[in-house]
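Thread title: Can someone regenerate the structure for this chain?

I was given the following input by a collaborator and told the matching structure tokens would be attached. They weren't. Posting the sequence so someone can regenerate them.
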Amino acid sequence: MTIKRLDHVSVVVDDLAAAIAFFTALGMTLEAEAAIEGPWVDRINALENVQVDIVMMRTPDGHGRLELTKFRNPKLVEIEPAIAPPNTPGLRSIMFTVESVDDTVARLRANGAELIGEVAQYEDKYRLCYMRGPAGIIVALAEELF
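Best answer:
Regenerated them for you:
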């Protein structure tokens, strides 16, 4: 048995508008929006009375999709620490290949993102960095040098 494809990655956010602005500044486009609720959503989440707003964002090449999810009900559950460091178990980062790391960092900073460390170069292949994005997630940026 094999999978057909990776369909999308989902991120739960507390501020949907800010997350849309962040990923739009990164270069993604809004593909679809929907309010979701009902018994089937309750069942797959193992929660009662789920009400969420979702937004699907698409990469410029059309192959990558990111689902941004805002829970209206039930309320978000806080984790400790709220802004987890890079060595926390679980989803580490979402990496995007960009044309220019410097330009992208500047655009994302204007949308509230913070550089975690520094922009670094890996051999003669990539310029790389990690930024803290919406809901504290780590967005990795890679600029190809070849």
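The two ends are 36 Å apart (CA to CA).
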